[in-house]
Amino acid sequence: MLYAAGGGKVFNPCAVSLAVRECVSLQAPRQGTLRLLEENMLTRPDPTFHATAKLAMQAPVENYGFTVMLSPDGSASDGIAVVDLNPSSSTYGQIVHQVIVPTKGDEFHHFGWNACSASLSPLSGHAFLERRYLIVPGIRSSRIYIIDVKEPLKAKIHRTIEPEEIFSKTGYSRPHTIHCGPEGIYVSTLGGGGEDGTDGPPGIFIMDCETFEIVGQYEMDRGAQDKHYDFWWNLPQDYMVSSEWGLPPQFENGVVAEDLLSNKYGHSIHFWDLRKRKNIQTIDLGENHQMALEIRPAHDPKKSYGFCGVVVDTTNLQGAIFTWWRDDDGKWQAKKTITIDPHPADPDDLPELLKGFAAVPPLVTDIDLSLDDKYLYVACWGIGEMHQYDVTDPMNPVLAGKVELGGVVKDTKHPNGKDFAYGPQMVEISRDGKRVYWTNSLYSTWDDQFYPDDEGGQMVMARVGDDGGFELDKDFYVDFPKGYRSHQIRLEGGDCSTDSFCYPSV
What we know:
CATH superfamily of the largest domain: YVTN repeat-like/Quinoprotein amine dehydrogenase
CATH class of the largest domain: Mainly Beta
CATH architecture of the largest domain: 7 Propeller
Distance between the termini: 26 Å
């Protein structure tokens, strides 16, 4: 089934093709005309590309999810699990297909689509791409897999990009976040050149969205940016925001306590002129606000604000959310609008890293914003909580709901009575905002530091109330195969941390 370019009437290409053939058969042979007509029918925008967030919310719901399968010790190959999300299916909540790669030690982490709603930008010549391929980087190996998921139950590897190609064409390593832009695939990295990734700063590189060739570095003028993590943009307003974690020696083997306590991890966000590829402003959130991670701009492109999650405040162990916005004079500002307190705990119940603090920090390790820009979900990985904030007023968020699951000390079980390893981590929201999915692994070596006795990979889902609030669905619980952990989730047809919308909702 295909949608018309305006998103309206649904066409059956087979029926149309037959009608065209019958019409042409009554006349002199016009094979060229037939071919052009058929090609025109098949080159309409992908129906999962939506001009506005509102249209995306109204689209058919997801039937499948795609989730990282991580072998933390590298003893097995990583992969992507295809999870059945259709509640009417006999395999609902089960892994129904796996794509296991031939290499070991990649450490799959974040991944994204080759194309999405950004393809509808008036600046793009790529409106007729398909949301077909998952771009899956190995954060340790710097290898990238292109996985064809056009038929989810037959998903397969389409192409492999070796690390040597990335190094030689970009000077970067440790690819991390994938965003599909109007003219290509943008890939953030956590490492520069050299064996330990510290030979030059990390940044963003661009891939061709049709051939998957590496094009080159994004940055023309990076300014103060010398670390990297996440990034996202507002296409009509022509700006991008990026954030900072740390350099490879600061995360690959676990948290470096000395660096954390001396505030050597990232604590700034950077604003860019998207088209000029130039850093136009850097805001230091304060050196105590260590690890400025996920960037979540408002989905409505008319709005000039967004959110950034901070893992820990080293002065008080709080987690925090900053709201950033642009003033009338064009300057960017940022203000801490949410704080989450640590939980006191007996040192005997804590991992070695936390014993001296006698408390568990929230560890805000992921955030996600619903497509209507109403609810911000905040994963508190350390204390085992997922928070829901009403951010209708982005400067004054209000806690609207909370789910407890896992946690360093609490170790809250799922409503079905089963264990949940670690705590809520990667979170993804359905386009209609009614379902919130999350997994539990942060990063292999960090899992082992904060949860030394835990093991396992799970994926759960919570249902959102009509007036806010949310609660876990006791019937949805995905337990990953033994030896695998789970991380990022992508949803069939797009999700809330995938698409950039080119037009305002009406």
